[in-house]
Automatic annotation (TrEMBL):
A cellular component annotation (GO) from this entry: DNA-directed RNA polymerase complex
NCBIfam families: PRK12469.1 (NF009118), rpoN_sigma (TIGR02395)
Keyword line: DNA-binding, DNA-directed RNA polymerase, Nucleotidyltransferase, Sigma factor, Transcription, Transcription regulation, Transferase
One GO term of the biological process aspect: DNA-templated transcription initiation
Stored InterPro entries: RNA_pol_sigma_54, RNA_pol_sigma_54_core-bd, RNA_pol_sigma_54_DNA-bd, RpoN_core-bd_sf
Gene Ontology MF, one: DNA-binding transcription activator activity
Name of the featured protein: RNA polymerase sigma-54 factor
Segments forming domain RNA polymerase sigma factor 54 DNA-binding: 307-466
Similarity comment: Belongs to the sigma-54 factor family.
């Protein structure tokens, strides 16, 4: 069989993702803050992009007569600056006296940072009678304390960081546990609470036994066996429990380094009369325009410069078009969600209907992937609070009349029922399912109620039960 070279024509179709198309898709799924950063970056890199300034109208000044002009001069004249050294204090001197002493210091340096647990303990060790040797060991110990205040390293692990004996490490851990917050650097919840009881002077043997041996029984509400064991009444046991609740099992949480997550809504929805008004959040978003200076410079540019200018001009025009398309798509998606979920905007979460991406995509005549991207990390401010756009898409549960209700609505109803229940006789998952079926005509199984309850972080009925 011989080998030979041949030329063959073949016609095929393929999708090519141009850089411009990739940029447009990326802009769709960016959050609002990420979009602002992207636009600012493009403004810095592309000379053809410019930020349009908002024109402010200057009110016309009425012509003043000669006498009125003299009165205006007397009223507004800067006489302190005019008198200079002949005045008791010049305006410049007064301004210098009132200057902030921090002038010249960066803005970040003027802000006090939130104290950390590690820094707080280091500060106390430096101000206490700890030796340099103890501080050296203490740095290794404090570096292994988690955000709840518990020591997560054994003596062997600490010894691998700094040479020390078990006696030195145990003595230092004992001293750190008595610093503020009391109970920090403990290895178990029992040890943490015992240290706090020692410092506070709680030396009751029953209380100490409850903390040392029966925390699991208290967590599972096994009160009656404990009352029989210690030969005390339920009222006396309640007094011990009230005393234990004054202790802090997680002393390090007040120094947690986690910062709150702030959300800036992309869309605002207001009710005006019987209609809902949609307003896109344009706060901080620069208004882009083509730079006229570089547009005029294209005429006299040489061939290589023209290629560069044309490339940057096309990039700027495509960015402006992509931003417009993004805002237009976001508006259409929110408008469609309002049509599908109008009862939610009227009443609240309990009226949230089942909705899928395909329904919104067909309503606005776009692809599901586009709807998925534009609803990612986007938030809307409604009359009932701020929600992520993904919140409005939820699965369906069947009703007895053949209609459907959204799973988020059922979750809200379950949460409301548990909030209103008798804490001494909490509702079981099976009972909640029966109530939903009898009164609200929702077909829901007990395991589905348990799944929704767990997803909302609500404990079971046995753990919600209160005996006192």
């Amino acid at each position: 069989m011989g080998l030979e070279l041949r030329q063959q024509l073949k016609l095929s179709q393929q999708l090519v993702m141009t850089p411009q198309l990739q940029q447009a898709i990326k802009l769709l799924q960016l959050s609002r803050l990420e979009l602002l950063e992207t636009v600012q970056q493009e403004l810095m890199e592309n000379p053809f992009l410019d930020e349009a300034e908002t024109e402010t109208e200057i009110p016309e000044r009425e012509e003043l007569t000669e006498s009125q002009a003299e009165e205006e001069l007397v009223r507004t004249a800067d006489w302190e600056n005019y008198l200079g050294e002949f005045s008791s204090t010049s305006k410049q001197a007064a301004s210098r006296d009132s200057e902030v002493p921090e002038e010249g210091v960066s803005f970040e340096a003027r802000l006090a940072s939130k104290p950390s647990l590690e820094g707080h303990l280091h500060w106390q060790m430096r101000l206490s009678n700890f030796t340099e040797r103890e501080i050296e060991i203490g740095e290794a110990v404090i570096g292994n304390i988690d955000h709840n205040g518990y020591l997560q390293a054994s003596n062997d692990e600490i010894r691998s960081m700094v040479p020390a004996t078990d006696e030195e490490i145990d003595n230092l851990v004992h001293r750190i546990q008595r610093l503020d917050p009391v109970g920090v650097c403990a290895r178990t919840p029992q040890e943490c609470l015992e240290v706090q009881m020692e410092v506070l002077g709680y030396d009751d043997p029953i209380l100490q036994s409850l903390v040392r041996d029966h925390l699991e029984d208290l967590e599972k509400n096994r009160y009656k066996p404990l009352a029989r064991k210690f030969k005390i009444s339920m009222e006396e046991l309640k007094e011990y429990l009230d005393l234990m609740q004054t202790l802090d099992p997680m002393p390090g949480t007040n120094f947690s380094s986690t910062e709150p997550h702030y959300v800036s809504p992309d869309v605002f929805v207001y009710k005006y009369g019987d209609e809902f008004v949609i307003i896109l959040n344009e706060d901080g978003m620069p208004r882009l325009q083509m730079n006229s200076f570089y547009m005029d410079s294209m005429r006299g540019a040489v061939e290589k410069e023209k290629e560069y200018f044309q490339e940057k001009m096309r990039s700027a025009a495509w960015l402006m078009k992509s931003l417009y398309q993004r805002q237009r798509t976001l508006y259409k998606v929110v408008e469609s969600i309002i049509r599908f979920q109008k009862e939610f905007f009227e009443v609240g979460v309990t009226k949230l209907k089942p909705l899928i991406l395909k329904e919104v995509a067909e309503d606005i005549e776009m692809h599901e992937s586009t709807v998925s991207r534009i609803t990612t990390s986007k938030y809307v401010s409604t009359p009932h609070g701020i929600f992520e756009l993904k919140f409005f898409f939820n699965s369906a549960l069947d009703l007895d009349d053949g209609s459907q209700v959204g799973s988020e609505s059922v979750k809200a109803l379950i949460k409301q029922m548990i909030a209103e229940e008798d804490t001494k006789k909490p509702l079981s998952d099976e009972k909640i399912g029966e109530i939903l079926k009898d009164k609200l005509e929702v077909n829901i199984a007990r395991r589905t109620v348990a799944k929704y309850r767990s997803a909302m972080g609500i404990p079971s009925s046995s753990k919600r039960k209160q005996y006192f």
